[in-house]
Amino acid sequence: MSKDQKIVIIDYKVGNLSSIANMLKKVGQRSLISDKPEDIETADKLILPGVGAFDYGITQLNNSGLSSVLNKKACEEKIPFLGICLGAQLLTQSSEEGVLPGLGWFQAKTVKFKFDPTETKLKIPHMGWTDVTIEHPSPLTIGLEEEARFYFVHSFHFTTEHKEEILLKSVYGYEFVSALHRDNIFAVQFHPEKSHKFGLQVMKNFVDI
Amino acid sequence: MKRIRVIPVLLVNNRKLVKTIKFGAETYVGDPVNAIKIFNDKEVDELILLDISATKNKQEPNFELIEQAAGECFMPLGYGGGITHIDQIKRILYSGVEKVVINSSIATNPALITEASKAFGAQAIVASIDLKKSLFGGYAAYTHSGTKKVKMGLVEYAKYVEELGAGEIMVYSIDRDGTYKGFDVEITGKIAEQVSIPVIASGGARNIDDFSDVVINGHASAVAAGSMFVFTGKHRAVLISYPNQKELKKNLYEKL
To answer: Residues 181..210 of B with a Cβ closer than 8 Å to A: which?
Structure first.
């Protein structure tokens, strides 16, 4: 059953958004893909997706005037907000990929995977399915307690000293933070829209918040 | 525990799902969208759909089929076949496909790879290096469904596609395609050691032991298989299958 709520997938011209709408459709939820501030102003929930470079993404948000609208919706109105992949990294303070500041909603930074080449042959980006461990209970992670795995494609990952913001951890060469959570805001590094029943559960949980 | 991607590769000829032997003799397998639905239900890691008739028939990608396929895939999907222009890549990716697979255009329009990599990210561009062993034991890469030989040496060619901007290389052994002889571990390793991007081993998979072999000894980051996932038994009866998580853990991940 489609809940009577307005979920907007923010279109800031950084990649494919139809997979997210398709996954929401599978859980019975209609959504709107939009780049219009007036649609985002009236949303009940927001999803910020994105694939690509950090500075390009944040510039797209700043130049389109969306940054201030997002700040208002997420930080003042406190509506449920989900960042995915680049859209998640943009919620941190900064990224080693770029020079521009992020939205800074989390006391976290985005850093590049660093391996000792004498110890590992792991390639960057980390591309593939990886397990997650839940660091604190949240409405987004209900039902994911056992053997949940997600599809990742990324060269950069979150890091934070604020343990209370860490939602999920994963291992690729070493343990890294794969999701952040504070109040109404969630940031996931992986792609729930491409992660079978596990991603479906995440999207369903987000719809049900 | 390390997971590696196990990827079914589906071949389409004029919208029919087929499976080849050594890029030749084709067996009709069924309806592609139906097969994709079954693979989605089996929770495959990723799927690659290759249209082997598009370039040959000088046709554009079948966008309707691609959109239908993407709508059924709740996992990453790669598409290859007939891609000659950046607008086609954009349309494919925006219909919900994660990656495009480029083969013939590496020879005819290498700038396309660079352009697409800049526009959509290297992770969206897979270069397929289809290779054959000559009678004298040397290897060569091919384009256009194995009909046009690439002059450059194989390893040099692999480095070249990486420099062009490919984010992954699919090393596809034409000699082993559909033969169940196992992957060409040696050549996969030679390429994987010389590039810094992930290599997908393809061509010849017979069983799950071949997967661990090519990952451990051929340094593949992912494995692909066709016949193994669409046929069963020595008479190659059509049956779509995919190992479950228990099998993958026991016979693959825990060995790596």
So the answer is: 196-198
Residue A93, domain member (yes or no): yes
Q: Tens of pLDDT along B190-248? A: 999 999 999 999 999 999 999 999 999 999 999 999 999 999 988 899 999 999 999 99
Tally Cβ neighbours within 10 Å of residue A136: 12
| Domain extents in chain B | 5-255
For residue A186, what is the domain's CATH number?
A: 3.40.50.880
CB-nearest to B96 from A22, A147, A149 is: A22
Identity at B236, one-letter amino acid code: R
Tokens 């949240």 sit at which residue?
A138
Residue A110 lies in a domain: yes
The CATH number of domain B5-255, selected from 2.60.120.10, 3.20.20.70, 3.90.1150.190, 3.40.50.12780:
3.20.20.70
**Inter-helix orientation angle B32-41/B63-72, to 10°:** 20
Q: What are phi and psi of A208, to 5 degrees?
A: -85, -10
A18 → chain B, closest CA residue: B96
- Considering the domain boundaries, does residue A49 fall inside one? yes
Residue with tokens 């390893």: B155
Burial of B104 (0-12, 13-18, 19+ CB in 10 A): buried
Report how far residue A93's alpha carbon sits from residue B48's, in angstroms, rounded to the nearest whole number. Answer: 37
Buried b (16+ CB within 10 A) or exposed e, B173-194: bbbbbbebebbbbebbbbbbee
**Does A2 fall in a domain?**
no
Q: Is residue A106 within 8 Å of residue A91, measured between CB atoms?
A: yes
d(CA A182, CA A88): 13
ipTM, 2 decimals?
Answer: 0.94
pLDDT digits (tens, 9 = 90+) for A98-126: 999 999 999 999 999 999 878 777 888 99
Q: Is A154 a catalytic residue?
A: no
pLDDT on residue A2 = 58
CA distance, residue B254 to nearest chain A CA (Å):
14
Domain region containing A145: 7-208
CA angle B49, B52, B56 (to 5 degrees): 150
What does the mean pLDDT of chain A come to? Answer: 95
Report pLDDT digits (tens) over B95-135: 999 999 999 999 999 999 999 999 899 999 999 999 999 88
